[in-house]
Amino acid sequence: MNMAGCYKVTTNCIRNLITEHFKDGKSIRTREKLVKVSHSTVFAIIKRWKLRGTVENALKSGAPHKLTPRNRSFIMHKSKKNPRLSAVKLTTELEKKICNKSKP
């Protein structure tokens, strides 16, 4: 199941084009029609550009995931197969699986 957002991402090329039109002094509605994006998107891009000086996406904070999606599905499969399996036993089975995969 994919949990990614279902919104349209504006490319950096279009963002740069919007900022160039802004520097030329064109209005938000004119920029909206030229680039074919909504005026709220144009306004948000200009606001971000004024605030940070760039149109690039900001780095996301937070720790990386401990498990890969494959290992997560392995744990889900094992726990559905045997619901009484303890967390300690699940961990040891996962470690065995990982160790066996890494050995040549």
TrEMBL record:
<dbReference type="InterPro" id="IPR036388">
    <property type="entry name" value="WH-like_DNA-bd_sf"/>
</dbReference>
<dbReference type="InterPro" id="IPR009057">
    <property type="entry name" value="Homeodomain-like_sf"/>
</dbReference>
<protein>
    <recommendedName>
        <fullName>Transposase Tc1-like domain-containing protein</fullName>
    </recommendedName>
</protein>
<dbReference type="GO" id="GO:0005634">
    <property type="term" value="C:nucleus"/>
</dbReference>
